[in-house]
Design brief:
two-stranded antiparallel ribbon, binds copper (II) ion
């Protein structure tokens, strides 16, 4: 939650952004709806949100939620990061470790 937008980006795979209905359980498994994409904008916390803990605690930040469904086809490490270079260089980068299904 910050005072500026971010842009979630993942390497080596793509994802779908789920609708509220899908998040609430209207569908299960990999959705047949929605386009596959490799990045999605994540909106800032609103006008009163300056990215500080104080603004968060004062409830000035308005959280929005973006839920994605990533149909990983293989196991491995998948890098994700903010697609704004300054944010990425500032540390907004990590990996998702995907393991195979248990038998
Ligand atoms: Cu960012």
């Amino acid at each position: 939650m910050t005072g500026e937008d971010h842009n979630f980006h993942i390497h080596q795979t793509k994802f779908r952004v789920l609708t509220k209905g899908e998040v609430l359980g209207a569908t299960s498994g990999v959705s047949a709806k929605g386009i596959l994409q490799d990045n999605v904008p994540l909106p800032a916390g609103g006008e009163g949100c300056d990215g500080t803990v104080a603004s968060w605690r004062s409830k000035a930040c308005q959280a929005t939620r973006t839920v994605v469904e990533i149909p990983f086809a293989i196991a491995g490490d998948f890098v994700f990061h903010c697609h704004i270079l300054e944010h990425e260089d500032g540390g907004m980068m990590a990996t998702i470790h995907v393991v195979g299904a248990a038998n």
